[in-house]
Amino acid sequence: MNKSHHLLMDDLVTRLRRGQLSRREFLARSSALLAAGAMSGLPGAVLAQEAAPKAGGFMRLGLHNASQNDNLDPGSWSTSWTGASFNGGVYNNLVEILPDGSVAGDLAESWEAEPGAKVWRFKLRPGVTFHNGKSLEVEDVRQSLEHHMKPDSTSGARAIVEQIETIDIEGSDTVRITLSEGNADLPYLLSDYHLSIYPALEGGGIDMESANGTGAFLLESFEPGIATRLKRNPNYHKNNKPYLDEVEFINITDATARLNALLTGEVDFIQDLDIRNVSMVERSGDFEVQRVPSLRHFTFDMDTRVAPFDNPDVRLALKHALDRDDVIEKVFLGEATKGNDNPVASIQKFHHDMPAREYSIAKAREHLAKAGLDQVNVDLSVAENAFAGAIEAATLYQRHAAEAGININIVQEAADGYWENVWRKKPFCAVDYFGRATVDWLFSTSYVTGAPWNSGWSNARFDELHQTARAETDEAKRAACYAEMQEILRDDGNVITVAFVSWRNAVSKRIGFGEVGGLMPLDNMRMCERWWIKD
Amino acid sequence: MNRTSHPILSMVASRVGLGLLSLLIVSLVIFFSVSLLPGSYASAILGQNATPEAVAALETRLGLDQPAIWRYLSWLAAAATGDLGQSFAGRPVMAVLGPRLLNTITLASITAVIAVPLAITLGVICARFRGRFIDRFLSTSTLASISLPEFFVAYLMMMIFAVKLQWFPSMAGIRNSMDLGEQLYRMVLPILTLLLVILAHMIRNTRAAILSVMSSPYVEMARLKGESEGRVVTRQALPNAIGPIASVVALNLAYLISGVVVIEVVFVYPGVGQAMIDAVRNRDVPVIQACALIFATAYIGFNLLADIVSIVSNPRLLHPR
Question: Residue limits of the ABC transmembrane type-1 domain (chain B) (predicted)?
Fold first, then answer.
C-alpha cells in the first residue's frame, strides 16, 4: 500500500472506533481499499482533483466574516472575507505565495537583494494594466506601500512597513526598498493581503474609491456585510486565469445556516465547517470535506514574569502534564494534529522536526522536584471563544495534570472582550493563534524580547539568533539558527501548544482545484483565481 | 374648557412628549452600557493585527480618547438635527442602516398585512365557537407554537420546505440586483416562520379579549333581544374588545421591527437586526445607538398608536374622572 492508502486505512480505523462505521461496513471498505492498493499502487489514485482546469461558470462561496464596515481601504482589512474577495479577486501584490508555500512574482517579475538583505530591488512585470486600461507604473507601487506607512497609520500591515526606511524609484520599472535593518524575508512580507497595489492619485495617495485594480476580477457589486460579486477580467496578466466567469461571496454568519446553504445548493463552498457536521457532509455524495493544513494553533500561554511560571522547570512540568492525544481524540474528534510546544507549523519553511512531546507524569514530577516543589496550584483562564473547544480541553488538562501534583483551577472568563481583558493580562490562558507566513515574522510578533504580543518571555540566545537569522541570506545557516530557536522555545518557552488545526471547509464536488495553500485561509486568499468549475 | 375641546389632540401631544422622553433615556442607557462593554472598537476591528500603536492611532482618529459624556452630548446634539453621524468605519450611519431598515420594514409589512387580519378573524372564530373542535384545535396548536423557540420553528421550516421538499430556498439573502419576484420568493420561509410565531399570540389574545366582554350584562341583553350568536360576537363584543386587541397587535408589530434578529441570522436575511449584531461585535457605537433609537421608536410609536385606538374606541377613557 502507498501512503495515501495508509491514510485512508487509518481514517477507516478511526471512524470504526468512533462508531461512525459498522463493523460490516468497515470490512467491506477496508478490503476494497486493500484490493485497490494491490492493483494500482498509483500514488495519485485516490486524488480526484487532477483534471485540467475548465473555463467558465459561476462559483458561490459561503464565508462568514463580512462586516458592514468593510471598505476598499486596504489598511482597514482584517478578515479572510476582505482578503479573498478584494485582495485575491480585485487586486494583486508584488508577489504571491504559491500553494506549496514558496513565494513567486506577481506584479513584480523578479527581485534581488543586496548582501545583508537591507536593500531590495523589485522589477515590475511589463504590460500589466489596471481594470480601466491604465498601465501599472512604479509610482503606483510606491504610493500603495506608503499608504500604510503614514505616521498615524492604523493599517494592519503597520508592523511590516515599519521596517521600511525609504522607497525609491529607479528607472521606469524598478522599485528600490531600503529597510532599516536586513530582512531576508521581505518578499514574503510583501505578500501580506493589506499590501495590495492600487493606482496612485495625482499628488500622492491611492485611489480607494473606484475598485480599479490589476486583479483577476472586476468588482461587479459590493453590499457591505451581505455579498460581493466579481466578474472576470478579460485582460488579466496570468495565462488562462481566471477560469471562472463570475464569483459571488455570500456572508452567512450562522454555522447551521451555512451548512444548509451548501446542502440545498445555494452555495458551492462553505468556510469553517463545524466539527460536528463533518460526518454529515462526508455521508452525502455531492460534497466533500476539505482539510488544508494551516499555521493555526491552539495554546495555553504562560506569563513568565509571574510565579510559578517564571521557573523554567515548572513550565516544563506543565508541558509534560498535558495528554495531547486525549484532547485531540475527545475535543477535536481527531480533526487536529498534535502540538509540540513549538509554534512553528510543520508546513512552514524552516520548521524543525523534533521528537513529539509525550504525556509523562514521571517527567512532570521530576521537573516539579527540580523546581523544589511537590505540588503547584495554577489558575487557567479560558472562554468558549479562546479557541473552539478551549473549555473542554482545559477540563481534560486539569485531570491529566492532577496526577503529577499540578492543581489546575479553571477560570471561565467572559467570551466577550476575552482578547482585550484576558489574553496577555491573565498569567495562564488559552489562545488561538493564526500564525504568520514566515518564522521570522512569527517570532518578531510574539517571541523576541519586547515583541508586541510577547507575555514576558525573554531569552538572550533566542534574541541573538533572531538577529543573525534575519539578515542571513544563506538558507542553510538560517535553517540552523531557526532550528536552535525552536528547540529553545520548546524547552524554555512560555507556550504550551495543544494542537495545530486545518482550515476545514466543505465544498461541492463540481468545484475543481489543484493543491490548496494553507499559509493563509482560502488557498492563500487566491481561491477565486485558482479554482474552477468542472461541469 | 380648552382641555376638553380637543381631548384627542392634547392626549396625543402629551403621549408624544412622554415618548420622546423615553427615547432620550433609552439613548442614555445604551450609550453608557456600550461603554461598559469590555473591549473597544479599535481592538475589535484590528483583530490579530492589533498592536498597541495601531490601537492608539485608531482611537485618536475616532475621538475615543475624549471623555464619554462629551461624546454623548455631541452625538445627541447631532441626532436632534436628524444627523445620526458617521459609523466608526467612516460611512454615514444612515448609509449603513438605510438599506437594512428597508429590508426589515418590507419583511415586517408583508408579515403584518397577512397576520393581523388572519389573527383577528381566527380569534373571533375561536370566541364564537368556544369549546368546539375548531377552538380546541387552534388553542392547542397556538399554545404549541408559542412554546417553541423561534429559531427551532425556523429550522423546522427550513428542514421541511428547503431541504426535504425543496420548494423554497434555505437562504433569504435578498440583494438589490434581484427582481421583486425573486425577492418575494426568497422571503417566503422567513415570513412563514414569523407568521407562526406572532399569529399564536394575537389569536389567543383576541379570543380572550372577546370572551371577557361576552360575560358582560349588555351581551346577555343582546342575546335576549334574539340576535344571532355570530352577530353578538361581531357587532356587540368585538367593538368593545378593540382596546386590548390593539395593544397586542402593537406589541407584535414592534416585535417584527426589532425582535427578529434570530430569524434574520438563521435565514441570512440582511435586516437591521444583523446590522446591530455586527455593530455590537465591532463596538461601533454610532451604529448601535442608531439601531437602539430605531427599535425604541418602533416600540413607542406602535404603543402610542394602540393607546390612541383604544381611547378613541372607548370614549370613557377620554374623560378620566
Answer: 101-306
